[in-house]
Amino acid sequence: MTALRAELEKLADEKYRAFSAKLLPKAETLIGVRIPELRKLAKRAAAENWDLSSDGTFEETMVAALALARAEMPLGGKLAAVEEFLPRIRNWSVCDSFCAELKIAEPEREHYFALVEKYIGSADEFLCRFAYAMLLGHFTDRRYLDFALSHFENFDNPHYYAKTACAWCAATYLAKFPRELADFLLSGKMRDKKALQMAKQKVRDSFRTPPEIKAQFAEKRGARKPAKRGLG
Question: pTM to 2 decimals?
Fold first, then answer.
């Protein structure tokens, strides 16, 4: 048993494990350790150079993700390590936590954006989600708006967690660029209608959506076509 697995077993919480099991794929093996504790372990693991290669449990993968996200290393080595880690992502929680925890300095931005460009069109569920999670978390400046709109419009991934990431990203962009995104989402240009439906729902649900924009989406919701009447 690795040092990490031993520490995780000490922190196991059966009630939390049962709760987490409802949110994650059934294929995941869970110990039941809360995220704040995983963050503490990630810090220790990085400082003490623990073996983080095991994906035997969700928590082991999550600690590896958090440790890598916070790791200080030369840019080239960090980017290579990120790409090496990506195949280990097999659920939304690890993906989103990893992307959120990554700290990207301004001089490094375009290097990380190259990863978004590389994976945003991937047919793989979680490589695609990684790209959209990175886009919404780190690249919502106006200089990326045209890129984002183009990929929202042409989104083409059949997998649920890729669709939800695209929708979440679109709703996040709307909070920054209300007029542009409202016009786009209400135009019907987005080809994947399921992802479009999800995006509109996230816009309606988000507290970050300006009230006047939310009203536009509310008007569209549940709209019905007039019934056809006979000619005679």
Answer: 0.91
